Structure formats: C-alpha cells, structure tokens
Amino acid sequence: KSIAVGIIGTGGMGTRHAGNIHRLVDGALVSAVFDTDQKNAANAAAVCDGAQIFDDPLKLIDSPTLDAVLIASPDNNHSDMTLACLKAGKPVLCEKPLATNVEDALAVVQAEMQSGKRLVSVGFMRRFDPQHAAVREAVLSGELGQPLLWKGVHRNASSAYGTSGATVLTNSAGHDMDSARFLLGEEVLEVYVRGIKTRPELHEDTRDLLILNMRMSHDKMAVGEVFVNADYGYEVSAEVVCQYGTALTQQPDKVLLRHKAHRGFYVSADWLSPFTEAYIAEDRAWIESLQNGTVFSGASAWDGYMAMAVTTACIESLHSGKIVPVNTIEKAEMYQ
Ligand code: ISE
User: Fold this and answer.
1) Cβ neighbours of residue 320 under 8 Å, at least 6 residues apart?
2) pTM score, two decimals?
C-alpha cells in the first residue's frame, strides 16, 4: 500500500522532503500540503502532482485520507504540531528541533509514552549521511579500539535564523549534540559553553561562534565548534578519536579544481547540497518503517528531547560561564 503523506510547512526544507517523498521514495506519495504562505504551498503542491492544499494544519493532521505527517514548519510550532499528530494517532517525522524548550520536548515524549506507540521520528539527518554512517561503522568495527573523543565542526556561511546564543544552540547546535551522542553511543552528562560575537557591528546578544564542551557518559569527551557566520560557506565534519586511530568524515567525490591562481575544492553555500543523500535516505527509511510497521532507524522523540535537554544546559552554561549538568527524566523502556 502506498503511504499518503501530508507536509506541514513548505519552505525550503518542507519542499525538499515533499520532492524526495513524492518522486524518489517508493511506496509513498505526498497528497496534502499546508503553509501559511499560499505561494509556498502552491509550489510544493505542484512538485507533488497537485497535492491538496489545506488552509489549516490541524485539519491536515486529522484528515482520514492521510497516513502520516511530516512537519517542516518554523521551529516554534514543531512540538504543538507533533502533539496534534500524537492525539490523532498519526506517525510523524518532525524536522529538528523537536521543540524550542525542554518542557515542550518533554511533553511530546510523555504524550508518546502515554500512547504506548512509537509514532514520533525526528529529522536529525546526519545519522543518514553516508560520511557520518561510515565513521560510525569504523568506530563500531572495534578496529580502532575504544572511542574516546568526538570533535565536530559546524559552519554556516551566514545565519538564517538569528544569532543569539539561545537561537544558535536551539536551531543549529542540536545537530552536533546528536552527532556526538550518535557517533560515540553515549549520553551527554555535563556541558561547558563559551561564545563570542565575531563582528563589532552585530547586535550585543550575538554569540555567533560557540565552543561546546560536553562530558559524555563512560568518561568520553566531545568538543564542537558551531560558527553560524563563517562567511566562506557551509561545512560540517565529525571526527571520532579512538585508542588506536581516528575516523573523520570525508566527501568522497569532490573534484580538485584549478582556477585563477587557486587549487582546491568548492564549498557549498548551504546544507541542502552536502546533505542531499542524507535527506533522501532519511525519508526512505521513514517510509519503509511505516510500510513494515517497524521502528524508524533514525532519531526518536527521546533523541529530540535529549537534544533539547542538552541545549537548555548549554544556554545556562553560556550565560553563567559555569559547567552545567544535563537534567533529564529516566529513559523509558520503549526508547531502549
Ligand atoms: C539549519 O536549521 C539546519 O538544520 C542545518 O542543517 C544546520 O546546519 C543549520 O545550522 C541550521 O540553521
């Protein structure tokens, strides 16, 4: 049976998922879209052979013609939309972050626990990126010995969503917290965050360059740079340092260019192109899990909640200058 998906939020990210699911994923079609901007909704509907355009996201969620919902609306309504999906008993893939504060993320986890069914998936797409997957495989092979340290780099050419420390930590750095958890297979216990504003003309709240220091379970360490105004382009990398070697993400098929007295590689301007494959693989894995009635292999509501719990501690650390513990509820059986 073909899975009928409705998409809430059809900006750049939602339209990308719509095209992936409708055109590139077997056994699924996008049959409904919603966006507050009619033009965006019409564009996405056109990509999906004339999907129905809803004027209310809650009506879309409740529509009996839809099997599943993908949420790619602005960050601050992710948790409300996800809760509405849980209420309707619909499987949902919510773009990261699951919420913009830890209380709302916890409400999603608790509602899912009450429903007794794993309905919520979260779009931490790096888990499906071939480079990140290869690093994880190398670590899991055991050949490098025990993993000890995660080192991440996350740079945006310019910030699309604001540059206060809280916004950067909530919107961008969640990927790095998830990457460290995923690649080391450990939880974040404590954080220490430093941040600066990189240009004098920026607003005084700006913390566009951050260093995250995370103490992980089993005495592992993680440190990441998050720089949302790096100017030259978009880049992400992750390295796991182990007892007998290290594994670092590498782009395999880059062309060495010689041009105008330079020799080097192009760098992408945004995340859509470096993570093209990751988004397709994520959408494919989600649809397959719905078809087979199995648990999604990517991030769960628990992972979305953990990212928000770590984010909350990071914001506190950035503001206080102190080491801050990550406080969470106990992990329920259904997320083990
Ligand atoms: C954006 O929202 C994303 O999810 C990108 O993957 C990330 O790299 C960027 O920093 C975020 O702003």
Assistant:
1) none
2) 0.97
**Domain range annotation of the chain:** 3-124+277-300, 127-271+307-335
Pocket test for ligand 1, best of 175, 226, 267 (most atoms within 8 A of CB): 175
Report H helices in the chain. Answer: 12-19, 38-47, 57-62, 78-88, 102-115, 130-140, 165-167, 174-184, 276-292, 301-320
ipTM computed for the complex: 0.97
- Residues 171-192 have pLDDT tens digits of 999 999 999 999 999 999 999 9
| Ligand 1 binding residues, C-beta < 6 A | 156, 160-161, 171-172, 175, 271
Per residue in 50-90, pLDDT tens?
Answer: 899 999 999 999 999 999 999 999 999 999 999 999 999 99
User: In which band, very low, low, confident or very high, does the pLDDT at 306 lie, cut at 50, 70 and 90?
Assistant: very high
Triad 105, 194, 241: Cα angle to 5°? 85
Name the fold adopted by 127-271+307-335: Dihydrodipicolinate Reductase; domain 2 (3.30.360)
Distance of CA 269 to the CA centre of its chain: 18
The atom number, within ligand 1, closest to the CA of 228 reads: 10
Nearest to 25 by CA among 278, 292, 281, 296: 281
The CATH homologous superfamily for domain 3-124+277-300 is NAD(P)-binding Rossmann-like Domain (3.40.50.720)
Q: How many CB atoms lie within 10 A of CB 268?
A: 16
> Rg of the chain's alpha carbons, rounded to an integer?
20
The Cα 159–Cα 305 span in angstroms is: 24
